[in-house]
């Protein structure tokens, strides 16, 4: 490793303390080692010099080698400023115009800024390299503010021998003069200073078995590629290394936990399980049966289960959860199901009570609004073991909640709970309970392997038979009256409708409908008493939300105007219309979740996207894709490609365990799968990485970036 102070980037040529501080805050690079891991996101080919005569004005950027024939200073009126005396009043100068030629043709070079510096620098009669965007102005080819280099400088020849990288930047960096050209020069200094002391991070056997080039070669060629082949080798090495260490870190946690976490053996299925299973009015899908077998196998052994259950909206995750809970009660233990909202918790409670009718298993519910007398009774039954299954919200993790013998904890929509909240729930059991976390948000395989790489993953990838697809259509705002007539027809037929808005309060800067104004419009269009409209949003109290939601669920309200609080889990089989205002404001996965609120009652259902007048090309593609498929996993993959893995839910909560600098979960799935398999192979033979050949791997995993709290660590 480099030793201080040489490793501090402020000592690099062209940096200094002020720029060093900016590079640290804006790019996260305060040492040479860190700076070398800031990679270009694209490359410009500056290995080619074009003849001026062959240049087209449509080209993005070109490079010419030309001699300066003449250069003049011009004022705002276009008159030449006298510079013959050598004394120039640059306050009068508005632009510099130089004519250059390479023998094939001539071109004008124009500058509006930095004129004093450029005037002294480009001397008539000398040859320079100019790089920039060609244009046609007044019938003549020109370049405005091109980069100018002296081909005789050694630094220039080093940079020009390769493709030129374009680095991530910010407004603050640009304002401080750290342009692309300056960044390239800084990176060259960093390479020359730091490369001799770079330590290889991968053992020799890994490099040989995976056919990887050395780190030293990779860093030089990722920043200044010798050629395309060298760039490809460098990219592959660095991507593999990044994903390999990510998976090695996650899988090592899993190996350590599986060795140390003693689970509760649950060898029996139990009579209640059989009664519930045999009384179901429908057959489980093959996917549900497969997942139950996986869970059963986990729970019967002596290890703690840590399993993530993924299933699209309506795929039957709740039934799997119920049967899993009955395995726990059949072995003399209790089970709890924690949901993110009161609405969802009470809905789960209602459904579970129906499923367990006649099984003899007692079910309770506990939420923030449970009244004091009822709460005391629930806590008493829980502590004595009378309650077999309890459903609740965050209320389950409060200090007064005591289980007699918690054996299984089920978390619904687990991304909505923090690590600390979950840890408090696990602490309510003497022995680590089995853990089943569920999500209805389809997660692309590559992201699941990263976010939840230390969990076992089950996927319900089959929908129950007979489920009618939801018809998804887009309309413009000018079709609103037709939409209202359609909703009235549905209500006349005894159906209900959701209308969802992306915002809660008026924001003058953003021209999107909000739920308050929308509610007023809907009430005018659907007047009382013929129509009854309820409203639910996050700013209401729990009591208000419950009252309005209950009115809609019970059918007392025909229309529910809402924000995305109804995104997760609300089950109203009678609702056949989902209207989403300004759908371009939502991510694909979120739109898919909202669409899943209808189509649950067996009749024809509709999702209507009321798009805004102005749509970006990306928004148009996303909405078209939503209309073309109901496969949540296809949508999730595309959403990740379009928006990146950190923003799949319209928030930045996804929290990757480490920041990815060069690899992409959207594009490098094959490398990720290969890296994971190889990491698993190494850990099978050496779970603690204690063998001498794995010393480098052990040292690398000790770095801070692998010790961050992440959403995958659930127990």
What is the terminal separation in angstroms? 35 Å
Give the overall pLDDT as a whole number. Answer: 84
Please outline the major beta sheet: 7 strands, mixed
| Spatial arrangement of strands, main beta sheet | 6-7-4-3-2-5-8
Shape: globular
Structural class, from secondary structure content?
alpha/beta
Measured as a percent range, the helix fraction is: 25-40%
Catalogue the unreliable spans.
Answer: 1-6, 508-512, 646-655, 708-715
Give an overview in words:
The strands form four sheets. Strands 6-7-4-3-2-5-8 form a seven-stranded mixed sheet. The protein has a seven-stranded parallel sheet with strand order 12-13-11-14-15-10-16, sandwiched between helices. A six-stranded parallel sheet has the order 17-22-21-18-20-19, with helices on both faces. The chain has 24 helices and 22 strands. The two termini are 35 Å apart. The protein has 715 residues and is of the alpha/beta class. The N terminus and C terminus are likely disordered. Helix 8 packs across helix 9, helix 9 packs across helix 23 and helix 21 runs antiparallel to helix 22.
């Amino acid at each position: 490793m480099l030793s201080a102070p040489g490793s501090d980037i402020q000592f690099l040529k062209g940096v200094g303390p002020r720029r060093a501080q900016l590079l640290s805050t804006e790019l996260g690079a305060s040492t040479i080692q860190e700076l070398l891991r800031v990679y270009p996101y694209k490359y410009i080919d500056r290995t080619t010099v074009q003849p001026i005569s062959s240049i087209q004005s449509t080209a993005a950027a070109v490079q010419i080698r030309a001699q300066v024939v003449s250069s003049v200073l011009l004022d705002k009126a276009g008159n030449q400023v006298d510079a013959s005396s050598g004394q120039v009043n640059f306050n009068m100068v508005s632009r510099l115009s130089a004519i250059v030629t390479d023998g094939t043709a001539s071109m004008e070079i124009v500058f509006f800024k930095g004129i004093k510096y450029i005037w002294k620098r480009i001397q008539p009669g000398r040859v320079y390299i100019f790089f920039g965007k060609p244009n046609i102005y007044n019938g003549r080819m020109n370049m405005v503010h091109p980069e100018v280099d002296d081909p005789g400088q050694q630094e220039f020849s080093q940079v020009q021998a390769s493709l030129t990288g374009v680095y991530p930047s910010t407004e603050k960096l640009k304002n401080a003069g750290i342009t692309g050209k300056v960044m390239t020069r800084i990176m060259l200094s960093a390479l020359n200073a730091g490369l001799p002391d770079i330590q290889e991070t991968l053992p020799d056997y890994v490099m040989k078995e995976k056919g990887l080039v050395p780190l030293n070669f990779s860093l030089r060629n990722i920043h200044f590629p010798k050629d395309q082949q060298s760039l490809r080798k460098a990219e592959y090495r660095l991507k593999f290394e990044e994903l390999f260490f990510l998976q090695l870190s996650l899988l090592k946690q899993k190996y350590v936990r599986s060795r140390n976490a003693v689970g509760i053996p649950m060898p029996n299925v139990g009579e209640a399980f059989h009664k519930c299973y045999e009384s179901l009015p429908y057959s489980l899908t093959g996917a549900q049966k497969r997942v139950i077998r996986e869970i059963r196998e986990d729970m019967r052994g002596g290890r703690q289960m840590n399993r993530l259950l993924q299933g699209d909206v309506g795929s039957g995750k709740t039934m799997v959860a119920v049967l899993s809970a009955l395995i726990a009660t059949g072995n003399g233990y209790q089970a709890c199901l924690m949901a993110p909202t009161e609405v969802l918790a009470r809905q789960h409670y209602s459904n579970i009570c129906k499923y367990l009718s006649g099984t003899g298993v007692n079910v309770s519910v506990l939420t923030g609004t449970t009244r004091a007398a009822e709460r005391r009774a629930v806590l008493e039954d829980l502590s004595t073991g009378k309650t077999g299954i309890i459903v609740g919200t965050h209320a389950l993790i409060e200090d007064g909640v005591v289980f007699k013998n918690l054996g299984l904890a089920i978390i619904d929509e687990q991304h909505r709970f923090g690590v600390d909240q979950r840890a408090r729930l696990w602490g309510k059991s003497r022995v680590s309970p089995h853990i089943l976390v569920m999500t209805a948000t389809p997660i692309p395989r590559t992201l699941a392997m990263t976010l939840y790489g230390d969990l076992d993953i089950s996927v319900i990838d089959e929908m129950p038979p007979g489920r009618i697809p939801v018809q998804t259509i887009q309309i413009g705002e000018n079709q609103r009256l037709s939409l209202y007539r359609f909703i009235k027809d549905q209500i006349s037929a005894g159906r209900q409708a959701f209308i969802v808005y992306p915002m809660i309060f008026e924001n003058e800067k953003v021209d999107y409908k909000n739920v308050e104004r929308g509610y007023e419009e809907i009430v005018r269009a659907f007047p009382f008493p013929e129509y009854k409209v309820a409203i639910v949003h996050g700013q209401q109290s729990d009591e208000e939300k419950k009252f309005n939601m209950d009115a809609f669920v019970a059918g007392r309200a025909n229309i529910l105007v809402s924000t995305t609080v109804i995104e997760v889990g609300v089950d109203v089989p009678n609702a056949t219309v989902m209207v989403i205002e300004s759908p371009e404001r939502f991510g694909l996965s979120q739109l898919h979740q909202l669409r899943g609120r209808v189509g649950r009652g067996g009749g024809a259902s509709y999702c209507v996207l009321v798009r805004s007048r102005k749509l970006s090309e990306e928004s148009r593609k996303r909405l078209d894709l939503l209309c073309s498929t109901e496969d949540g996993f296809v949508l999730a993959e595309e959403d990740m490609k379009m928006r990146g893995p950190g923003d799949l839910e319209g928030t930045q909560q996804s929290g990757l365990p480490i920041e990815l600098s060069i690899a992409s979960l959207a594009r490098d799935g094959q490398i990720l799968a290969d890296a994971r398999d190889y990491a698993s192979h190494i850990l099978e033979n050496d779970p603690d990485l204690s063998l001498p050949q794995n010393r480098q791997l052990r040292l690398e995993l000790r770095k801070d970036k692998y010790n961050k709290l992440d959403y995958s660590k659930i127990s």
